[in-house]
Design brief:
By secondary structure, the protein is of the alpha/beta class. About 35% of the residues lie in helices and about 20% in strands. A six-stranded mixed beta sheet has the order 2-4-1-5-6-7, sandwiched between helices. Helix 4 (about 135-150) links the parallel strand 5 and strand 6. It is globular. The two termini are about 25 Å apart.
């Protein structure tokens, strides 16, 4: 799959860099079997929240999806395998000022970078003295006009309204922005997101419950960005030794998914066995799912479905 990314844009002092730093800290905190290193100073590859990954690991722990590898229980078999999540790439793009389309500020750099990304995360200052609806809508218009004047139109966008902590649940503000600009909007307190990085998971969830939200703003942003990029997730289980989630463009085939895992998988592709992850979790494992006829045999033209668990059969 060719690289896809979201560019983070916004006016000066909108909280763009704070949000990006929070995304980077989240990425670094979740480095495990596969390091999510920063490719460039202003680029971050961020793991996608996915509660199914841990559940899938629980089901396949000590088991393999290949017939010949199913062995009696042993200490090695029941050692918890590493988990590799799917990812989405965020790029922190130089700040924009009015007149960017004419070269003002870092206009040329801004417009050049924004042409390279697949979707836009537009951070808007919506706190303190900039919190009035009229000012928020005006700030959004400034960026949108500069993009249009720079010849950048029709790119999918999500508006991130950077609010104070007590305004996180401001549904009216979200509605006003979505109605006017016809794109998804969410509220985030970028400063709070930075602070939450240092919380233990239990403490974080307790605090979120206290302020009346179910998930962090970063989690919501990452998931919405994933959808904005038109990505789906499929899973592979490497001999019971690694549970891996992969990002894939919606509408891609089993052949394309095989190439995403390894070029040799595509080159030597014979067939694919696929099952929805929720069905796999419900029956309790690959072997049981196969016995119940839930695992489907597919060819290279099969359109991969979101949340498929796939085992690729390859030749030599």
């Amino acid at each position: 799959m060719s690289s896809v990314s979201c560019g983070i844009v916004g006016l000066p002092n909108a909280g763009k860099s704070t949000l990006f730093n929070a995304l980077c800290a989240r990425r670094l905190a979740e480095t495990a079997p596969r390091p999510f290193t920063t490719i460039e100073p202003h680029e971050a590859v961020v793991p996608v929240p996915d509660e199914r990954l841990e559940k899938l690991t629980d089901v396949v722990m000590g088991k393999s999806t290949s017939e010949e590898s199913i062995r009696p229980p042993s200490e090695e078999n029941f050692r918890r395998p590493p988990v590799v999540p799917a990812t989405v790439t965020f790029i922190d793009i130089a700040g924009l000022v009015k007149g960017a389309s004419k070269g003002e500020g870092l206009g040329n750099q801004f417009l050049g970078k924004i042409r390279e990304v697949d979707a836009i995360v537009h951070v808007v200052r919506a706190f303190e003295d900039k919190g009035s609806l009229a000012q928020i809508l005006e700030d959004i218009e400034i960026v949108n006009i500069e993009l249009e004047l720079g010849g950048i139109t029709g790119k999918p966008t999500i508006y991130v309204l950077n609010v104070s902590e007590d305004k996180i649940n401001n549904l009216q503000l979200i509605s006003e922005v979505e109605i006017k600009f016809k794109e998804k909007a969410i509220t985030i307190c970028a400063g709070l997101e930075e602070e939450l990085i240092d919380f233990e998971e239990k403490e974080k969830r307790q605090y979120l419950e206290e302020i009346g939200v179910a998930e962090t703003g970063l989690e919501r942003l990452i998931l919405h960005a994933y959808q904005l990029l038109n990505l789906i997730t499929f899973y592979t289980i490497k001999g019971g030794k690694e549970v891996h989630a992969w990002s894939l463009k919606k509408g891609e085939t089993a052949f394309g998914a095989a190439a995403e895992v390894h070029t040799d998988f595509a080159k030597n592709f014979i067939k694919a066995e696929a099952i929805n992850v929720d069905k796999l979790l419900a029956v309790g494992g690959w072997k049981a799912a196969r016995e119940k006829g839930e695992v489907k045999l597919e060819g290279k033209d099969y359109i991969v479905q979101d949340k498929d668990v796939i085992e690729f059969k390859i030749g030599q």
